[in-house]
């Protein structure tokens, strides 16, 4: 058993696809970090003063325009022209720009706030890592089957289920390890951006815990995605099986179903799309609204019907999907003729 | 020797029907039997599609049989396969390897998976002659080099039973001879070798015994010499001093109950109990024999006869058109 585990770790990291995807992953995440550190600027007294100055000058410019208009209007009026079509009544005197309408805040550069914004970055990270995990997981077992390497391995290790699950375990452990390592780097990098190019915000222990939970959720999704890719590719004994299934589900669920349900006018059609459950998974709940329904509120306005998708429901959907794929893969691995 | 009688591999009544939901059924093995004794080089012969590879795959647990029993090294398989698999090295029908790994990496990963020492890897690479190319990717190998790698992977375990499905496929003449010598050496060192091959000259040279399969059933088995003897027709070639006398001689022999085939310069006589009686009979009629030789059969002709796959002029034999076992 130990030998097989070692062999599988070696095999996984010797593969070109694994190495390429890891390189792309690091490159992609690195690019986002770099771009973000360039986009975000720390706001100190000098930035505030500059913004204040720009707000003031903007105010002054607008004031000048206004005065010019009033003067023109007066002049036209004194010439006895009709002015009501061109100028507001009283030549717009009471509409003169006010200083407080020009807030310095508008003229401040973007400033990253770790406390407020890191949550979104967790989902972005999970999405990117999941994509890489899907490709790595699918090709790891798919290429192995397709090249005949799996058949060779079975001549050495005839217990098929132990081979299937050892490989899956090796894959998931590796994905977990890589996710944790990259996730730590990701957190540190964004925190540093907050620290030196923005704000970290008030990072209480509660805030860290909440990020940790979101991170765990993200990594959970990444692992599920890797397992599904692995299961599909071993079902079809080909990498393309998993990639094709992903594209197929994407097209059917996100495009075909969307169009069909829209035409049919199904209420809360969004609850049939996988992407809705992904959103709910990260946001803890996702509210669908039906604006065709009008529920009068006390204040007399229309309120839409709502339908809430919770993260627990997402967990159920993704969990069941993963389980079905893995059970099918297990059953077929047990029973199939390897020819 | 006592140990020569121990069966390393036994198959009884093996049946396998491939089922495909859309393309129907195909009976590949139909009550096949085979016994391979320890220390032998055993030839496994049969026409294309007769079920050799199916037998070997079933034996190695890659395919589920529909019936029959199998045992390797005294263990029932497939149930006992995990216990004996370490003693069985096998290649099944030009095995494929992951194309982007080198031969060295491929073997090294297998050695890890089988809990073997990494030291075996360079040893077997040396044996199959891939030492200097071992670090190149398998993708870049020629057919014969891949075949050598396959043999290396089978040898890696230093097995007691070596199963080779057409190992000579793609080997150059030197490689074939090396393979022959290798198998002799291995067998001399006590390894049992099961060799499926279509090169019958080869098989006749190196195999101690053979099993011949046709349409999923055994049609002949035993030591090579026995199989040859059983199926040698007992024919004798008769030449006379004067070829003009051949028809007359044929008449005499037919009259005595023999079957005679008249050739331009000799007679093929079957159905006589002792060759010497031919001489005596003909001499009695003043017909003088200049040559009297028993016809030796080779494995190829026995094979063609048993499997009914000898080419017939003007016909294209299709696969599966081979002889069934006489009931
Ligand atoms: N995966 C499969 N599905 C369906 N039928 C198969 C399959 N594999 C083999 N067969 C059929 O089983 C029969 C035996 O095939 P097998 O590969 O065992 O022949 P073989 O003796 O190894 O032939 P060859 O000398 O050509 O290698 C053939 O009729 C073949 O078509
Ligand atoms: Mg074959």
Brief synopsis:
The complex is a heterodimer of chains A (339) and B (327). By secondary structure, chain A is mostly helical.
Task: Write up what this structure looks like.
The complex is a heterodimer of chains A (339) and B (327). Chain A has 339 residues and is mostly helical. Chain A is 72% helix and 7% strand. In chain A, α6 (160-197) runs antiparallel to α7 (205-236) and α7 packs across α8 (239-264). The mean pLDDT of chain A is 90. Chain B contains eleven helices and 14 strands. Helix content of chain B is 32%, strand content 27%. In chain B, 40% of the residues are buried. The model of chain B has no long low-confidence stretch (mean pLDDT 89). With 327 residues, chain B is α/β, with parallel strands linked by helices. In chain B, a hairpin with a 3-residue loop joins β1 and β2 (24-37). Chain B has a six-stranded mixed beta sheet, with helices on both faces. The chains are: A mainly alpha (339), B alpha/beta (327). The interface between A and B is medium-sized, with 29 and 30 residues. The structure holds adenosine-5'-triphosphate and magnesium ion. Magnesium ion is lined by residues 52-53, 93, 165 of chain B.
């Amino acid at each position: 058993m130990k030998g097989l585990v070692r062999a599988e770790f070696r095999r996984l990291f010797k593969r070109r696809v694994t190495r390429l995807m890891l390189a792309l992953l690091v490159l992609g995440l690195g690019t986002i970090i770099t771009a973000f550190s360039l986009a975000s600027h720390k706001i100190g007294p000098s930035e505030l003063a500059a913004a204040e100055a720009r707000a003031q000058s903007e105010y002054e410019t607008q004031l000048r325009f206004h005065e010019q208009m009033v003067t023109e209007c007066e002049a036209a009026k004194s010439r006895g022209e009709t002015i009501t079509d061109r100028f507001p009544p009283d030549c717009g005197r009471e509409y003169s720009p006010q200083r407080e309408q020009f807030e310095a805040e508008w003229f401040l550069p973007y400033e990253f706030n770790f406390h407020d914004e890191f949550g979104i970055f967790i989902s972005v990270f999970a999405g990117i890592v999941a994509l890489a995990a899907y490709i790595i997981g699918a090709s790891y077992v798919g290429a192995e089957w397709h090249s005949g390497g799996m058949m060779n391995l079975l001549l050495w290790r005839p217990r098929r289920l132990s081979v299937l699950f050892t490989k899956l375990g090796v894959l998931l452990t590796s994905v977990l390890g890589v996710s944790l390592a990259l996730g730590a780097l990701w957190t540190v990098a964004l925190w540093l951006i907050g620290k030196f190019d923005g704000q970290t915000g008030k990072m209480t222990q509660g805030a860290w815990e909440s990020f940790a939970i979101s991170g765990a959720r993200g990594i959970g999704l990444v692992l599920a995605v890797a397992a599904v890719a692995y299961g599909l590719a071993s079902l079809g004994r080909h990498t393309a099986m998993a990639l094709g299934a992903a594209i197929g589900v994407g097209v059917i669920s996100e495009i075909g179903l969307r169009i069909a349900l829209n035409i049919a006018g199904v209420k809360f059609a969004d609850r049939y799309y996988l992407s809705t459950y992904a959103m709910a998974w990260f946001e803890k709940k996702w509210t669908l609204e039906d604006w065709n329904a009008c529920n009068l509120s006390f204040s007399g306005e229309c309120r839409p019907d709502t339908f809430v998708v919770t993260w627990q429901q997402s967990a159920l959907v993704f969990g069941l999907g993963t389980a079905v794929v893995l059970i099918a893969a297990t059953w077929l691995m047990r029973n199939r003729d390897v020819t | 020797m006592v140990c020569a009688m121990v069966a390393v591999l036994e198959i009884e009544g093996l049946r396998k029907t491939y089922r495909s939901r859309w393309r129907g059924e195909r009976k590949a093995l139909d009550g096949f039997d085979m016994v391979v004794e320890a220390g032998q080089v055993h030839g496994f012969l049969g026409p294309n599609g007769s079920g050799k590879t199916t037998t070997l795959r079933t034996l190695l647990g890659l395919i589920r049989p529909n019936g029959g029993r199998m045992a390797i090294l005294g263990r029932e398989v497939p149930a006992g396969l995990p216990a004996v698999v370490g003693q069985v090295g096998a290649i099944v029908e030009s095995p494929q390897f992951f194309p982007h790994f080198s031969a060295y990496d491929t073997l090294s990963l297998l050695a890890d998976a089988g809990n073997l020492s990494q030291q075996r890897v360079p040893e077997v690479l040396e044996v199959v002659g891939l030492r200097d190319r071992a670090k190149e990717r398998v993708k870049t190998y020629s057919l014969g080099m891949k075949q050598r790698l396959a043999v290396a992977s089978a040898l890696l375990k230093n097995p007691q039973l070596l199963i080779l499905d057409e190992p000579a496929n793609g080997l150059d003449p030197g490689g074939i001879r090396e393979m022959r010598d290798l198998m002799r050496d291995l067998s001399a060192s006590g390894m049992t070798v099961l060799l499926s091959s279509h090169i019958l000259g080869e098989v006749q040279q190196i195999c101690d015994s053979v099993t011949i399969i046709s349409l999923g059933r055994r049609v002949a088995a035993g030591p090579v010499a026995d199989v040859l003897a059983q199926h040698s027709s007992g024919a004798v070639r008769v030449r006379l001093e004067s070829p003009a006398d051949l028809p007359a001689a044929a008449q005499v022999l037919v009259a005595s109950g023999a079957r005679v085939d008249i050739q331009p310069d000799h007679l093929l006589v079957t159905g006589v109990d002792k060759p010497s009686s031919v001489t005596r009979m003909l001499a009695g009629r003043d017909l003088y024999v200049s040559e009297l030789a028993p016809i030796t059969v080779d494995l190829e002709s026995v094979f063609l006869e048993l499997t009914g796959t000898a080419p017939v002029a003007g016909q294209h034999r299709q696969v599966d058109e081979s002889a069934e076992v006489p009931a």
